[in-house]
Write a structure and sequence with these properties.
Blueprint: E1 14-15, H1 17-24, H2 28-37, E2 44-47, E3 50-54, H3 55-67
Antiparallel strand pairs: 1-3, 2-3
Helix pairs in contact: 1-2
Length: 71
């Protein structure tokens, strides 16, 4: 039986794509691909070339994935 791990909220704020990639342990190109495919929460577009993701949205997404057994 596997045990679901829960990410504890660390802080409020936002991060850009490099932070999102590091958060999930993936490459930035994969993070953009997941974003385009809707596999991660939608980002907030601040300008045509600047998108950020709320840390609490990413943590909630990861917790829900862990609770559903997605690895």
């Amino acid at each position: 039986m596997s045990q679901a791990h829960t990410v504890q909220p660390k802080s409020k704020g936002a991060m850009r794509i490099k932070g999102v990639a590091a958060f999930f342990g993936i490459a930035t190109s994969t993070a953009w691909k997941w974003h385009a495919e809707g596999k991660i929460p939608p980002g907030i577009k601040l300008s045509p070339r600047c998108t950020v993701w709320r840390i609490e949205d990413l943590e909630r997404f990861l917790n829900q994935a862990a609770a559903n057994g997605v690895e």
